[in-house]
Amino acid sequence: MVADFLTIAEAATLIEKRELSPVELTESRLSRVERLDGKLHSFIRVLGEPALAAARTAEAEIMAGRRRGPLHGIPIGLKDIYETKAVPTTGHSKVLIDHVPREDATSVRRLTEAGAIVVGKLTTHEFALGGPSFDLPWPPARNPWDTSRFTGGSSSGTGAAVAAGLVLGGTGSDTGGSIRGPAAFCGLAGLKPSYGLISRAGILPLAFSLDHAGPMTWTAEDCAIMLQAMAGHDPADPGSADRPAPDYRAALSGGIKGLRIGLIRHFYENDNPADEATRQGIAAAVKIFEELGCSVRELRLSPLADWAACGVIIMLSEAFAIHQPTLRERFGDYGEMFRDRMALATLISGGDYVQAVRRRRELATEFATAMADLDLALTAAAPGEAPAIDAVGKFATFERPMLTMPFNVTGTPAMSVCSGYSAAGLPLAFQLAGKPFDEVTVLRAAHAYEKATSWRSVRPRLDA
Hints:
Elements: H1 8-16, H2 22-40, E1 43-46, H3 48-63, E2 75-79, H4 106-113, E3 117-122, H5 156-163, E4 169-174, H6 180-186, E5 189-192, E6 212-217, H7 220-230, E7 260-263, H8 265-271, H9 276-291, E8 295-298, H10 304-330, H11 336-345, H12 350-370, E9 376-380, H13 396-399, H14 406-410, E10 414-421, E11 427-434, H15 439-452
Parallel strand pairs: 2-3, 2-4, 7-8, 7-9
Antiparallel strand pairs: 1-3, 4-6, 5-6, 5-10, 9-11, 10-11
């Protein structure tokens, strides 16, 4: 019998030793989806037969001595904005309910070339912006730690499916926090890489200059494994960076003694006040990093509201530019939450957008200067535990400045790391951010923290 919960690294080791079959593993995940997803709604589309066919192929290749690496035979899910050849990609919207791409997104192709098994397409917020919405063709995903709670968004289905063990890893996208938010609320390791590290070709866009693609997994090590397959230059993405990818997983063992960390305390104490449990979790994390040999000092930046305003104006302006023609023709086919959030974009002038882009350059320069003698920045990933799903307002994203948006503005790597659990048993998290294309340091620090704590041994009890 396959365990309900396995990390990618654990499953890869068993598969390599031929103690676990990719077919057996995939069958166990499909069975788990069938048993549990009726209350989680993390999947829009389950690809049972294609997944089993791919698993049989993977098993034959591995038995013949042609194992491709740690992702070979590993079941994953794809946020339903990642285009898949001959399989509908909807953006969780009626607008694209019949959209069947001719090709896989570049990142999907790279994952399957590494041997990953695509189990299905995962729930998102409509076009990665409007949610949780209850007037769309599919219901919103629910948090496996408590199904009355919000998963965060917009990579909501990925957060739920990975936390629940329905898949071992999944893809997300992050324009203002859409990887790190669900990772925080669902207890995952969620990495927003540097802008341009992972191709966005074939991924439905929200805002061209802020969109990032990335992995969502249970551990930092699993993030490193998925990142290795996804990263790389792609001429089809004009924002793609042409630079070699290091061995992310091998770098995890380097140790973190001597790392210099800047604690951005004012973001979560004053600018968007976090609850006491979150603050205590961060304070405890700081002590652990210090015990591991890091030095931590306070880092002050411009107020969080500046970062959020800058990012939101750019995000809404670019999203409206993408959706304006379809909004004119099919306004009623969008969900209410997406429509009304897009309506805000009509109030933003061209001058506002230009000034936001100018301010972005100033803020990015400010962060680069502040990080000159630091290796990492640390702050909250969310102000507290996941709220009730029916308590998330239509404009909740804009009511308080997002703790995650600064690192979309800078385009630098940032990762949500579980820091423990609230009194209600819900995940809490902090955020690690690094210098451009220094995912190695971010992942290494997150990995060291995970190994020094017990949080990765706690899983949601869905069968209870």
